[in-house]
TrEMBL record:
Membrane spanning residue stretches: none
A Gene Ontology BP annotation from the UniProt entry: positive regulation of mitotic metaphase/anaphase transition
Keyword Methyltransferase: no
Keywords: Cell cycle, Cell division, Cytoplasm, Cytoskeleton, Mitosis, Nucleus, Phosphoprotein, Repeat, TPR repeat, Ubl conjugation pathway
Ranges of residues in domain Anaphase-promoting complex subunit 5 N-terminal: 30-167
Pathway: Protein modification; protein ubiquitination
Name of the protein this chain belongs to: Anaphase-promoting complex subunit 5
Family matches, as SMART domains: TPR (SM00028)
Subcellular location(s) of the protein: Cytoplasm, Cytoskeleton, Spindle; Nucleus
Endpoints of the signal sequence: none
Role, per record: Component of the anaphase promoting complex/cyclosome (APC/C), a cell cycle-regulated E3 ubiquitin ligase that controls progression through mitosis and the G1 phase of the cell cycle. The APC/C complex acts by mediating ubiquitination and subsequent degradation of target proteins: it mainly mediates the formation of 'Lys-11'-linked polyubiquitin chains and, to a lower extent, the formation of 'Lys-48'- and 'Lys-63'-linked polyubiquitin chains. The APC/C complex catalyzes assembly of branched 'Lys-11'-/'Lys-48'-linked branched ubiquitin chains on target proteins.
Domain Anaphase-promoting complex subunit stretches: 254-353
Length: 756
């Protein structure tokens, strides 16, 4: 089920993806790249009405990322301008060439002429516009330079231009050896509007204040919405270290370093960066300026709260509780209700590790609504729904609660929580065994995210909610036998969530589980056994359960029984009801194989009682099928057929293809067993009906490539055709059975003693 607790982290740096970096001490300075931008602005003003409307619009869209971003090579800048207006790119290049190859006075004259842009009754540039502010900053920075600094700037401009000339010469030599058609192509928009590339950052040199703010805001937004487009963890940390060399008190850089360390699960570095962030926030007085005398205490209590969240994320619950107590104490002294509500939310998370308690959560939701904190209130409602889903509450009541939560989302435009809510609904329908409803919710979220764009051209579809929904979608396709489609979805997940990203473990687990099921269906138990280690590393309970399944398939009954008994005790202790029922069904199957059919019945009745108590309809239907099989073995097939009609409808409507095949195979067995007491005519009709059901079961098994079950169906069909005197059909089934039997030799277990 989707986790909603990660969103409770207090992030003082991010407000709609914007970093508030107001303590960076480095001012703007003039660089050759910025001089090239000044030349571009000058030529743009000279062109005036000569530029078409489309060209001017393209140039205006190009200017903002150029002014905010880091310095870039002249060749790339020129290529960007050529995409918008080739004529203007040539003018900029000529102007820069005259300045670089001319004398120092030419550069002096250029800066003197820039001031004319603001003169006149209708100036070319308004002083308060983005371009106007940039021009004024550059003129002011240039006027403050000493003569030696001016000369160094002029020398740097010459080197900047000469470096571009050398590169152009090398490119021309390369073009002579290359097909010109291969070099035709336009630079894509994402190269400028998208995130910064590692080589650009590495070559750009020290960043000014505004460039640093832009860099931090962009990377922070990408880490939140689309981690794959952010810099790699090592590269980002390197750039943050460079920023901190120029100003060690740059608090926001420390916080981004903390977020970056969380990506790679580095507990030491993340703790170190988090503490440094709040230390610098206090030392620089940034909090005191914005919050008065209360700023110092505010930093301390939120530092303790974030430290508690960090320890909780890494499973250090005792340290988290101590830090949370400290945050509560300081917040109570300061009468900070907002901080106390965050503390209450985390207190519930820590308490539920020990015992289930809805009291804290309900109190948190009520208080959050009282103090006007819709984000926390919604998270509380969704956590409450998640807890009550595991407690077996009716689906309609849970959906009503989520509907109330959705009203809060739409009222306050909380798009991230809308995604979490839909992912939660998908997981709840999956828990209750309603795959059709789960599929509908998954498609709803995918459609919504495809329409919602956020900053820097990034789609907000790389969040945990999106990963959860795609994983469920992949599993649903695999259950229906669409393994190619499931592979495509998992491939898409791997691209969007690389192995080093924080949500990669979700698709890794589902990928391993799908591979395991395919190997088991195909009878390749050695392959399935090799996948158990990977599943165990990601989810220990799932791994132990699947190890028992492999041992059972390999007829190692005593080892499988011991493992299942240990797992049953553990799952009962942690109240994992879904796994308890699955383990009970597996134990019942072991009793069948040991011919202890009467012992299996109480186990199945216990599983059925749990499934109905916790509203797990699909597991209840599967348990009824197992009960019907037990009744068939005990010699009462008529009663087995009666209860099959109660369970088969949910299986056929929402079940996996393998379960559908097993259900139809069981119906056919019961029909054949019941026909023994029928009149000859009625018996023939019953056997023909059983053959039709076997054909349907065979179609299902073939869809998931379940060869062992196919072999059993063919054997059963051959016997029925022989009884009916249909020699040709019997021989065909016998031939197919022989082929599969040679490929998959039997393990010495009678065919009638296995339900699945």
């Amino acid at each position: 089920m989707a986790s909603v607790h990660e969103s409770l982290y207090f992030n003082p740096m991010l407000t709609n993806g914007v970093v508030h970096a107001n303590v960076f001490g480095v001012r703007d300075w003039v660089t050759p790249h910025k001089m090239a931008l000044l030349v571009l602005l000058s030529e743009l003003g000279r062109a005036g009405a000569q530029l078409g409307l489309l060209e001017r619009r393209r140039l205006n869209r190009l200017l903002l990322p150029l002014l905010q971003g880091p310095d870039m090579a002249l060749s790339r800048l020129r290529k960007a301008i050529e995409e918008c207006c080739p004529h203007l790119a040539g003018s900029v290049h000529i102007r820069l060439k005259l300045m670089a190859e001319g004398e120092l006075k030419d550069m002096e004259q250029f800066f003197d002429d820039l001031s004319d842009s603001f003169s006149g009754t209708e100036p070319e540039v308004h002083k308060t516009s983005v371009v106007g502010l940039f021009l004024r900053h550059m003129i002011l920075a240039y006027n403050k330079l000493s003569f030696s600094q001016v000369y160094k700037l002029y020398t740097a401009l010459q080197q900047y231009f000469q470096k571009d000339d050398k590169k152009n010469g090398a490119d021309e030599n390369e073009m002579e050896l290359t097909n010109p058609e291969e070099l035709d192509g336009k630079m894509e928009k994402e190269e400028l509007d998208g995130p910064l590339r590692e080589e650009e950052i590495a070559c750009s040199g020290p960043l000014s204040q505004k460039q640093a703010e832009y860099f931090l805001s962009q990377q922070a937004s990408l880490l939140k919405n689309d981690e794959t487009k952010a810099l790699a963890p090592a590269s980002l940390q390197k750039e943050l270290n460079n920023l901190l060399k120029f100003n060690p008190d740059f608090a926001e850089a420390h916080y981004l370093s903390y977020l970056n360390s969380l990506r790679v699960q580095d507990v030491f570095s993340s703790t170190h960066s988090l503490l440094h962030y709040f230390d610098r926030l206090i030392l620089t007085g940034a909090e005191s300026k914005s919050n008065g005398d209360e700023g110092y205490g505010r930093s301390l209590r939120y530092a303790a709260l974030n430290l508690a969240a960090l320890h909780c994320r890494f499973g250090h619950y005792q340290q988290a509780e101590l830090a949370l107590q400290e945050a509560i104490r300081i917040a109570q002294e300061s009468n900070d209700h907002v901080c106390l509500q965050h503390c209450l939310s985390w207190l519930y998370i820590l308490e539920q590790k020990i015992f289930d308690s809805c009291v804290l959560l309900e109190h948190s939701v009520n208080k959050s609504l009282h103090f006007g904190l819709p984000y926390l209130a919604s998270l509380g409602i969704q956590s409450l729904v998640q807890q009550r889903a595991f407690a077996g509450k009716a689906a309609n009541k849970l959906m009503d609660a989520l509907k109330d939560s959705d009203l809060l989302h739409w009222k306050h435009s909380l798009s991230e929580l809308i995604d979490i809510s839909i992912a939660q609904k998908t997981a709840i329908w999956r828990l209750y065994g309603r795959s059709t409803m789960a599929l509908q919710q998954a498609q709803t979220l995918l459609s919504m995210n495809s329409l919602e764009a956020v900053n820097v051209g990034v789609q907000q579809n790389n969040t945990e909610s999106f990963a959860v929904v795609l994983c469920h979608l992949a599993e649903l396709h695999a259950e229906q036998g669409y393994f190619a489609a499931a592979s495509e979805i998992l491939k898409h997940l791997k691209e969007r969530f690389p192995p080093n990203s924080q949500h990669a473990q979700l698709w890794m687990l589902f990928d391993q589980k799908i591979q395991f099921e395919r190997a088991m269906n195909d009878g390749r138990y050695h392959v399935a056994d090799s996948l158990v280690a990977g599943i165990t590393a990601l989810n220990s309970i799932e791994g132990v359960y699947r190890k028992a399944i492999v041992l059972k398939a390999q007829n190692q009954m005593s080892e499988a029984h011991k493992l299942l008994q240990k797992l049953l005790i553990h799952c009962q202790k942690i109240k994992n009801t879904e796994m308890v029922i699955s383990v009970l069904l597996s134990i019942a199957e072991l009793y069948w194989r040991a011919s202890c059919h009467t012992i299996a019945l109480p186990v199945l009745l216990q599983a059925l009682a749990l499934a109905r108590e916790y509203s797990l309809q699909y597991l209840a239907s599967e348990t009824v099928l197992n009960l019907a099989f037990s009744q068939l073995i005990l010699g009462i097939p008529e009663q087995a057929l009666n209860i099959l009609h109660m369970a088969i409808e949910p299986i056929l409507a929402h079940g996996a293809v393998l379960d559908k095949g097993c259900a139809m195979f069981l119906v056919a067995k019961c029909q054949v067993a019941s026909a023994a007491s029928y009149t000859p005519q009625k018996k023939i009709e019953a056997l023909e009906s059983a053959i039709l059901n076997l054909n349907e079961a065979k179609t299902y098994f073939a869809k998931v490539d379940c060869k062992e079950q196919l072999r059993d169906v063919l054997y059963f069909q051959a016997r029925l055709f022989h009884t009916l005197g249909k020699t040709q059909e019997r021989n065909k089934c016998a031939m197919l059975f022989r082929q599969l039997h040679q490929e998959l030799p039997a393990h010495g277990v009678p065919l009638i003693n296995a339900f699945k």
